[in-house]
């Protein structure tokens, strides 16, 4: 069958003549070439082909949809606002221009689940209500989901409100496009904007939630890197912290005690004062001059090291804020994310699909990758305002430290050293437990917390007792 071709009426390449089974209708179609010699035909009005054209269906089909980029099975081209991922009991409040995702759990008037819970003592069911609320601070890469198993139990054993929230860059708390220039509405323009991914912002958010609960003080419960937020909050406002519970704390314990170093220096000084010979006097002058030169050299080297360190941090920070870093973050989480979650457990077989879904749900939120990169860049480029390891001996509030004996991320021996550095702190080690005692051993965890609160606070007046020495 020949095809009538009117070049002047509707120009079409002669290659169409190679398809004799098709009848061309110039009033209904427009044709164009596609790469690799395939022909694409788009309809302009309702029409049809006559003849046996089924064998050309692949040639005439519309282009395929571009395959989406996926991270742990989540299509990164279909990200949504975090609020669309929230649970029925999720809450959002605005703070410094961010929508902070949080949950609040109230104690039950008659906690029925405790009546069948063998891990809770009879005395805890009859104790007076604790007036201090508990604020739960999750670790790096986690969210408030990490506390879901124990929130209700903690509220019941304490008889007080329990609040958990997603720190900026994690969970379902909103992200910002340009954190370095982020300034909430109504703020003074001359005020330097506070990076929402900084430690200072997390501290202010923690203090905000204490006020949000209309409480004078709160008990801060931190896990892993959340313990850093708890400790920094204490040093920022010690009068607002009634006690701290540090779970698998990612706080580096000091290796040496400043007191021992001071004693050794005093002993050396006492020996030198007993030597009064002329030779020693000359040696002393030479020694002082040498120390002066050495101090000048050390100051120069320290200045050079600080400059190099500053340049290194700036370069590293610039790299983290590049598009390459975003791509690498996606690759790393896509390849190692699931295995990292399982590695945090002593028994990885207990990591259910629901647990994995909750941990990976924030990867569906818009801007999660950029926010994580910005958080890491801020953590690298800025140094803590307080030298935390050297100030641990200044903590005077009651402190409970809980760790798993098989923690592969933060070893239990670090928790032991930490308990020795914090005066009066109490250490509990849970057997056959990894980095997540509150998820892997929730019954033991709640029992330990309950006993700590019972021992530290007088439930009648809810006033903290002195830390045990």
TrEMBL record:
A Pfam family of this chain: Abhydrolase_6
GO cellular component: chloroplast envelope
Gene3D superfamilies assigned: alpha/beta hydrolase (3.40.50.1820)
GO MF annotations, alphabetized: hydrolase activity
Every AB hydrolase-1 domain range: 134-446
Protein name: AB hydrolase-1 domain-containing protein
Organism listed in the record: Deinandra increscens subsp. villosa
């Amino acid at each position: 069958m020949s095809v009538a071709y009117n070049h002047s009426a509707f120009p079409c390449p002669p290659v169409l003549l190679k398809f004799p089974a098709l009848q061309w209708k110039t009033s209904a179609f427009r044709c164009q070439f596609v790469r690799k010699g395939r022909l694409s035909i788009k309809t302009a009005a309702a029409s049809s082909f006559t003849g046996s054209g089924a064998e050309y269906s692949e040639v005439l089909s519309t282009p395929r949809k571009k395959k989406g980029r996926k991270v742990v099975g989540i299509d990164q081209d279909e990200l949504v606002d975090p609020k669309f991922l929230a649970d029925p009991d999720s809450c959002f409040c605005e703070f410094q221009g961010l929508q902070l995702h949080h949950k609040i759990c109230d104690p039950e008037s008659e906690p029925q689940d405790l009546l069948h819970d063998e891990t809770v003592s009879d005395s805890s069911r009859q104790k007076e209500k604790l007036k201090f609320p508990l604020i739960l601070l999750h670790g790096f890469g986690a969210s408030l989901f990490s506390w879901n198993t124990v929130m209700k139990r903690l509220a019941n054993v304490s008889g007080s409100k329990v609040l958990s929230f997603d720190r900026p860059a994690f969970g379902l708390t909103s992200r910002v496009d340009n954190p370095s220039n982020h300034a909430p509405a109504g703020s003074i323009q001359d005020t330097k904007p506070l990076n929402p991914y900084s430690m200072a912002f997390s501290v202010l958010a923690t203090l905000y939630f204490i006020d949000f609960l209309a409480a004078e003080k709160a008990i801060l419960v931190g896990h892993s890197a959340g313990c850093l937020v708890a400790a920094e909050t204490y040093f920022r406002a010690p009068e607002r912290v009634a006690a701290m519970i540090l779970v698998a704390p990612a706080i580096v314990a000091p290796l040496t005690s400043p007191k021992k170093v001071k004693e050794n220096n005093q002993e050396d000084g006492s020996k030198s004062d007993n030597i009064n010979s002329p030779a020693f006097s000359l040696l002393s002058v030479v020694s002082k001059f040498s120390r002066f030169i050495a101090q000048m050299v050390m100051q120069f080297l320290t200045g050079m090291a600080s400059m190099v360190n500053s340049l290194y941090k700036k370069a590293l920070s610039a790299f983290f804020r590049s598009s390459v870093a975003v791509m690498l973050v996606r690759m790393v989480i896509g390849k190692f994310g699931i295995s990292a979650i399982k590695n945090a457990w002593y028994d990885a077989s207990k990591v259910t699909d629901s647990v994995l879904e909750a941990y990976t749900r924030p990867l569906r939120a818009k801007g999660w990758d950029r926010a994580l990169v910005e958080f890491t860049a801020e953590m690298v480029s800025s140094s803590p305002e307080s030298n935390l390891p050297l100030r641990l001996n200044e903590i005077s509030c009651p402190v409970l430290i809980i760790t798993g004996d098989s923690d592969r991320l933060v070893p239990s021996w670090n928790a032991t050293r930490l308990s020795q550095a914090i005066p009066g702190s109490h250490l509990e080690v849970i057997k056959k437990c990894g980095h997540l005692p509150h998820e892997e051993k929730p019954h033991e965890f709640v029992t330990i917390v309950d006993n700590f609160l019972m021992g530290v606070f007088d439930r009648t007046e809810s006033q903290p007792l002195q830390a045990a020495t």
